[in-house]
TrEMBL record:
Pathway where it operates: Purine metabolism; IMP biosynthesis via de novo pathway; N(2)-formyl-N(1)-(5-phospho-D-ribosyl)glycinamide from N(1)-(5-phospho-D-ribosyl)glycinamide (10-formyl THF route): step 1/1
Upper lineage: Bacteria, Bacillati, Actinomycetota, Actinomycetes, Micrococcales
Swiss-Prot/TrEMBL GO biological process terms: 'de novo' IMP biosynthetic process
Active site: 108 (proton donor)
Protein name: Phosphoribosylglycinamide formyltransferase
Gene that this polypeptide is encoded by: purN
Protein EC: 2.1.2.2
Binding-site positions, N(1)-(5-phospho-beta-D-ribosyl)glycinamide: 12-14
InterPro entries: Formyl_transf_N (IPR002376), Formyl_transf_N_sf (IPR036477), GART (IPR004607)
Site (Raises pKa of active site His): 144
Source species of the chain: Microbacterium esteraromaticum
Cellular component GO terms, alphabetical: cytosol
Amino acid sequence: MLTLAVLISGAGSNLRALLEAASHPDYPARVVVVGADREAEGLAHAEEFGIPTFTVPWAAHTSREAWGEEVAAQLDVWNPDLIVLSGLMRLLPAAVVARYAPRIINTHPAYLPEFPGAHGVRDALAAGAEQTGASIIVIDDGVDSGPILAQERVAVLPGDTEAALHDRIKPVERRLLIDVVRRIATGELALTR
């Protein structure tokens, strides 16, 4: 059984989908802990499913490195097989990435390498793209530049707002994430740097 730690910053819709999938006896992975960089509303999903949580507030640390050291200390308590960044809006420090690589994956609301960074949906709209997508990647030292594990296109519709487009991307992200974690757990998908 693959054990997962999930790190979030917000509402945790991908987290909820993963918790629901993992609650089925035939799903080969279990979430053992959920962490956040703030008092994220998504932590309520973990509590509902009886999953322990931790919070390492960004603002309480003097540097990204100090924050990352505390995140790593919390993760080490649980020793997860895989770390899932699911809406975590902070870049992990290079030392943290190196410590766990290649066992950190991330969801991203764009068809990478198109539109990396924190505003992938907004950037796709600003560029006038006719399509964007969702990607699941292995984290590396760059910004959304790691090996792509799965991705799928999503059409940009006339008159799309950032919220409307993001709402259409989210279900694709959830489905890809659940499938990628399953495939990692069963050995169908290997993690590489």
